[in-house]
Amino acid sequence: MNFDDVAIIDTDVLVIGGGTAGPMAAVTVKERYPDLDVTLLEKANVKRSGAISMGMDGLNNAIVPGHATPEQYVREITIANDGIVHQPALMAYAQRSYPMIEKLDSWGVHFQKDETGDYDMKKVHHLGTYVLPMPEGHNVKKILYRRLRRHRVKVENRYQATRLLKDTAGNVSGMIGINTRTAEPIIIRAKAVVMATGAAGRIGLPHSGYLFGTYENPANSGDGHAMAYHAGADLANLECYQVNPLLKDYNGPACAYVTGPLGGFTSNAFGERFIECDYWSGQMMLEFFKELESGKGPVFLKLDHLAEETIQEIETVLHTNERPSRGRFHDGRQVNYRKRMVEMHISEIGFCSGHSASGVWVDETGATTVPGLYAAGDMASVPHNYMLGAFVYGQICGESAADFAQQRSEFELDKTLIEEELIRLRAPLERADGIPPEQMEYKVRRLVNDYLQPPKVSRRMEIGLERILSVRADLPLLKAGDAHELMRAMEVHSIVDCAEMAARASLYRTESRWGLYHYRVDFPETDEQQWFCHSRLYKDESGAMASGTRPIAPYIVSLGEDKDAYNQLRVKQAANA
């Protein structure tokens, strides 16, 4: 099969990813310019896809007047991320947070309100108050889908994007991919592209060994990170891993955001609170790791001291929203919140700006370093984005992409790149004998756990990189028996790309920063003089993976006396015991 055999779909704006940010971006384009053609491409089905497929239990970063200001939020996130942030991007989110809450509220997304009708804000962060519960958050995806239908957004379900296309001037020009049910290739020509493919959640391997038992949505295999890299986009701070607390052997969060405001807390095996704040920061995770490995481990979520009505409220939220399997998991282990603490552990690594600070580099308009390409949600570099950040930056990227498409003239696709990609896509199906995708995926993800999981050691990571490159050399041996296996084979390509990125980025930054996220045993100190900058990962002119730095933009909000607040999370009594 060659270029002339593949049908080409033309659209003005292409959105890749149908989770949270993608549908918002697509709807925003139609709201801004109703006459523009918008196509949404989704690997699964947009009705139940993405990290919010079953809903969400709350907003973790809501900036509501009377509880917080945009300036306070920008200061908090800058401090929580050891200063390595692009504050203009944070401020763009912060200023549009409350209008987005109002918009979602008008669409029928229900947020918890108090007896006066005001939003019922809860405090979990170390400094400010930003958590807004969503007792009926299981309806979010349905509401988004109705908006797509209302605005007549064209939806292509069951298509996996594999490479971005560019024109001769270097502007993004669409994508090529495959149908995940028939393996037929697809080319979409677009004047602008918004990528919203979520976190790279399948880099590390869960302790269960189950490939899809990940903390993140297992459909999010880093395809977007890999496509952006191969298109020439910069990625930032990939050594700042996502590493989160989770329930032991369960692919879901411990939900301190739900339990904390109601009196629950993270404790050691003796029921002692050892950190003052359960907000997910790298420093919080470092304290968690220290306690887990100490004589006071394991670490638990403590709820058994709470009143019956409080526990019932927690169960209603945790067992119906986001992950309804949670209650059944507890039943299987005979865990009752009233009688036993819930054992916790540490998740596998991933790339996710939603919970840390790594991703495809974007500015405050959502623009990447490739003209016409925009990125939103967990794959973009705006730190601690969470669901509301995905909505806001979906909106920002939709506006930016629509404006770019409006100004763009006709262009020609790069046929050579398309021909090369068609060969790569067909190869696993045409191979009579080879390596099944699940075997290669298991191998590379086990290597990630063995060599890249923090705490990080230089020589161990160097060996890991060597082993990952050996797996890369075997990629041409992947074999697919059908369309589904072909999708898995293309995901393995992305996973290997992300694993190599994680190794190279971690070796490049020779300091420790972000607590456990980038804790290097042989470089234990933070080096503000050399490393107060973003790390940059990109494809150089020879096609090799390269690293560099990007300066921190001048702060627009000063940090003041609180600049070291997140380094003082340890409860003094537990530390001195």
N-C termini distance: 69 Å
Whole-angstrom Rg = 23 Å
Number of helices: 16
Which residues form runs of ≥5 with pLDDT under 50? none
Please tell me what the overall shape is: globular
Strand content: 5-15%
Secondary-structure blueprint of this entry?
Layout: E1 8-16, H1 21-32, E2 38-42, E3 58-59, H2 70-80, H3 87-107, E4 132-133, H4 140-150, E5 154-157, E6 159-166, E7 172-179, E8 185-195, H5 223-230, E9 235-236, E10 245-247, H6 256-259, E11 265-267, H7 282-293, E12 299-302, H8 308-318, H9 325-332, E13 342-346, E14 359-360, E15 373-375, H10 386-407, H11 415-430, H12 437-451, H13 458-473, H14 483-508, H15 528-531, E16 534-539, E17 545-550, H16 572-576
Parallel strand pairs: 1-2, 1-8, 2-5, 8-15
Antiparallel strand pairs: 3-4, 6-7, 7-8, 9-14, 9-16, 10-13, 11-12, 12-13, 16-17
Helix pairs in contact: 1-4, 1-10, 2-3, 3-10, 5-14, 12-13, 12-14, 13-14
Q: What does it look like?
A:
By secondary structure, the protein is of the alpha+beta class. The protein has 16 helices and 17 strands. The strands form 4 sheets. Strands 1, 2, 5, 6, 7, 8 and 15 form a 7-stranded mixed sheet that branches. It has a 4-stranded antiparallel sheet with strand order 14-9-16-17, covered by helices on one side. A 4-stranded antiparallel sheet has the order 10-13-12-11. A hairpin with a 5-residue loop joins strand 16 (534-539) and strand 17 (545-550). The longest helix has 26 residues, at 483-508.
